[in-house]
Amino acid sequence: xxxxxxxxxxxxxxxxxxxxxxxxxxxxxxxxxxxxxxxxxxxxxxxxxxxxxxxxxxxxxxxxxxxxxxxxxxxxxxxxxxxxxxxxxxxxxxxxxxxxxxxxxxxxxxxxxxxxxxxxxxxxxxxxxxxxxxxxxxxxxxxxxxxxxxxxxxxxxxxxxxxxxxxxxxxxxxxxxxxxxxxxxxxxxxxxxxxxxxxxxxxxxxxxxxxxxxxxxxxxxxxxxxxxxxxxxxxxxxxxxxxxxxxxxxxxxxxxxxxxxxxxxxxxxxxxxxxxxxxxxxxxxxxxxxxxxxxxxxxxxxxxxxxxxxxxxxxxxxxxxxxxxxxxxxxxxxxxxxxxxxxxxxxxxxxxxxxxxxxxxxxxxxxxxxxxxxxxxxxxxxxxxxxxxxxxxxxxxxxxxxxxxxxxxxxxxxxxxxxxxxxxxxxxxxxxxxxxxxxxxxxxxxxxxxxxxxxxxxxxxxxxxxxxxxxxxxxxxxxxxxxxxxxxxxxxxxxxxxxxxxxxxxxxxxxxxxxxxxxxxxxxxxxxxxxxxxxxxxxxxxxxxxxxxxxxxxxxxxxxxxxxxxxxxxxxxxxxxxxxxxxxxxxxxxxxxxxxxxxxxxxxxxxxxxxxxxxxxxxxxxxxxxxxxxxx
Length: 632
Fold this sequence. Notes:
Number of strands: 19
Helix content: 40-55%
CATH topology of the largest domain: Rossmann fold
Number of domains: 3
Mean pLDDT: 87
Structural class: alpha/beta
């Protein structure tokens, strides 16, 4: 028996040259997705990963003594897979050696000479090791904690490879908040301003024109978002395939593509196949499930995935049976050598100083409104059992939002909340009047306390970041500080990013750059954690953060802490955190909750393979708090 194996477009085609396949062989082909096509008188299939299925077929035919021949295209893919498999095995071997601390297998002398000649920034020891690891394994990951300098490591590796004429340009996909840091770090690490292009937002026809570039006119760095990459996938693939540019493809904040089969993940996986080198960066590699690793390492080695289907099935089986140690053992063997990880304690930073919460007595109207709202919530909670589950969840989230608004700025209670129209003040006309006319009645007690802290810190010439989760509160704080003649700026969701046609000084990147300047025109930054807690660095200018209010979202809280506690500025300067808390309010429960979860996370985060069973990345903490506070 003999089979011709050919590839046409994205189809794998099998034609029998003599006799028929045995039923068991036809059954196996059917399991892999093949079907018989009478027109071509053969079997065909359009698999998600053509190379993987081709290798499976050849192994299966060899094992069952079935002769086969490959057409030119199939043979090319087969040979490329063999080559890539060899590179992967070499990467695993080198990665293991490096992580064991053995540097004898690589030319460190040439690397250190390169650093002295071309890299103005002096790297930390852990960054040196991470860069050597990334260069040695070719396609690797950095799972170090936020603030460790992952961007610096990639830029050093990229410049080294560019001088060796292995790559031409960086192509980074990530959240919009990462654009500014990549551009500023490029200049600081490599000593020159980069030429760059941002593919995000704007007119799609304009983007299409920018994709039509050449190797001679290619920029140093290209930046795009996950959503734009998904929308423009074909154009980006053509940019990678047709213009002769050898790209170093970087996925920043790679936890955004962990969902198997997700649109963003599919786009990244598709583009990665055409890159010369690949790298993924995230500080939270496995927050929910060991399956999170599958997409990440498929991006790095798409032609020869380190975690085979058999390994995946074993990992899922062990996970379902709560046998995490055996699942972690497989991951360590298959992908452990391919990633580098630095833990927080290894950064040798100055301590984080969490000052005792500043307990503040509410003003008269604040207390009146807060007590009225919480009393109404307790009354309503007694009949919660009459609602269907979905409606009840919306009601609970809405009520918790209203209570948090009470401890931030009373006037927020007059704004609408999506999917929540329950009126907690309709039984009290005077309460509605207080909310509507609150600014004329009193100044929030928290705001007065904030002014005292700001005044004290500015007297010491300290820059300050102030965090709040509510837009109305952010604007109130800015207005108040501006009236006191402080140099202040605000970043929240509506603040434009660098890819928009707005003067740079009014973009997030421009504001952060000005705030970070010694003696710049911004001394106080007011920010929303949802817009500013990820990817940005404030530590070079600022070591004092004031939390005007908090949410139950521990992930955002932890990210916000790291904005002022990072490598390259926090080694000798402690980071100070201040918390404004209303007496006898939900504030104390929120702070206790995020501190408890943070402590639990730090207790387990040092493990390379850990499942965060703390639900710290979920949004259900409001529901748990509601049950704790109002369902007794």
